[in-house]
């Protein structure tokens, strides 16, 4: 009983098994027995009902015990076939049990079940021959034997095909999860290497400012005060980056070994114009515009904004091709920056383009680390839009100049 006092509902699997078992029993009764033409009476009726009930009941637990259920039904069919007064030759019920074994068991077990069904086919052929005149027995035996062998063979093949298809689907799903995980881990490793550069730059500024302040400590107090201000600002930036990212990355020893300081400055929104020029040279028309007053971005957020534009434009060149038009829009607000890249999907699509969507998976991971969020959605009649929302930290910054 559930909390409301109502009896629990049957699960979908139980309902399917019940319906399938009932259907198999009905088929066996009306197609593979003589009950429709010679109805049993008295005790014979109850015996016949009991025989049918055995097969029906066994099929109810076929999912949990496929081999055991097949064994029970096989023994039941072997005993029933030569003894039933109603010429009862169970066929649909053994077929369901055989399909379940072929679907849920290993090849050797399912092959053994198929061979066992060959015994049922032989018994059916012998029984059919016994009911025929002598001159027709041989033909009846072979015809019946071939019929049942074909039926059991097709059922077994269907079960094996369903098993292989299910395994293939599971393998594809596993590979998809592994590739998505690798994309996320790859993006995290990339962020860790970029973090090295950001923090290293801040520390370098601090060291240089401190060295300069020490040299003029006695002669130029104003310059020392300015240097200390720069040191404080650079230190706050470095600590902010570490708090934001290191708690999420949890770098392993391998990641640390692979991530060294490159010495190159990391790109940001100031480099979008150069990126747009590169994409335009490939035949994609890109329009950029900025709305609102530009504000200050942390180094990692500035880099993430650049990566959003870079990934979106890269996807356009790979999957839409030359001739497409792209609108890159930056919308500045008091506490967040919205980066929106929209294409019309009307380019000359390259034939070699293959999409895995793992770039967007890694990009979503990057934005989550810096406190942002990402949305990607297709547009009618074939365009695509990538929208990122990123946090801002202050009232400083320079807009991206419009480019056409």
UniProtKB/TrEMBL annotation:
Domain DUF7134 residues, every copy: 12-164
Parts of the chain that traverse the membrane: 12-31, 43-60, 67-84, 109-126, 138-158
Domain Histidine kinase/HSP90-like ATPase: 304-393
Matches recorded under PANTHER family: NITRATE/NITRITE SENSOR PROTEIN NARX-RELATED, NITRATE_NITRITE SENSOR PROTEIN NARQ
UniProt keyword Zinc, yes or no: no
InterPro entries: DUF7134, HATPase_C_sf, HATPase_dom, Sensor_HK_TwoCompSys, Sig_transdc_His_kin_sub3_dim/P
Reaction equation(s) it catalyzes: ATP + protein L-histidine = ADP + protein N-phospho-L-histidine
Protein name: histidine kinase
Lineage of source species: Bacteria, Bacillati, Actinomycetota, Actinomycetes, Pseudonocardiales
């Amino acid at each position: 009983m559930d909390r409301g006092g109502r009896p629990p509902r049957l699960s979908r699997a139980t309902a399917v098994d019940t319906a399938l078992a009932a259907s198999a029993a009905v088929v066996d009764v009306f197609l593979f027995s003589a009950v429709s033409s010679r109805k049993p009476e008295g005790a014979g009726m109850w015996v016949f009902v009991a025989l049918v009930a055995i097969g029906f009941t066994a099929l109810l637990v076929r999912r949990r015990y496929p081999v055991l259920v097949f064994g029970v039904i096989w023994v039941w069919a072997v005993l029933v076939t030569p003894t039933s007064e109603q010429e009862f030759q169970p066929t649909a019920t053994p077929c369901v049990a055989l399909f379940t074994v072929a679907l849920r068991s290993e090849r050797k077990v399912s092959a053994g079940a198929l061979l066992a069904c060959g015994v049922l086919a032989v018994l059916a052929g012998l029984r059919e021959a016994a009911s025929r005149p002598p001159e027709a027995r041989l033909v009846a035996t072979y015809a019946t034997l071939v019929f049942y062998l074909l039926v059991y063979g097709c059922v077994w093949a269907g079960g094996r095909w369903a098993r292989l298809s299910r395994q293939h689907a599971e393998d594809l799903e596993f590979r998809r999860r592994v590739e998505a995980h690798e994309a996320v881990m790859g993006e995290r490793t990339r962020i860790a290497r970029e973090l090295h550069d950001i923090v290293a730059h801040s520390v370098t500024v601090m060291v240089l400012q401190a060295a300069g302040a020490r040299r003029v400590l006695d002669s130029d107090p104003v310059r020392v005060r300015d240097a200390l201000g720069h040191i404080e600002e650079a230190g706050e930036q470095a600590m902010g980056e570490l708090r934001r990212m290191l708690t999420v990355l949890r770098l392993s020893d391998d990641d640390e070994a692979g991530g060294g300081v490159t010495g190159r400055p990391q790109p940001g929104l100031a480099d979008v114009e150069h990126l747009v020029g590169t994409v335009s040279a490939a035949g994609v028309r890109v329009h950029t515009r900025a709305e609102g007053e530009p504000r200050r971005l942390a180094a990692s957020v500035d880099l993430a904004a650049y990566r959003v534009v870079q990934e979106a434009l890269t996807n356009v060149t790979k999957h839409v091709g030359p001739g497409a038009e792209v609108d890159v829009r930056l919308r500045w607000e008091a506490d967040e920056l919205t980066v929106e890249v929209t294409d019309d999907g009307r380019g000359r699509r390259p034939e070699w383009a293959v999409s895995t969507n793992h770039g967007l998976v890694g990009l979503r991971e990057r934005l989550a680390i810096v406190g942002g969020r990402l949305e990607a959605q297709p547009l009618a009649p074939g365009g695509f839009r990538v929208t990122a929302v990123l946090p801002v930290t202050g009232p400083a910054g320079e807009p991206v100049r419009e480019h056409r």
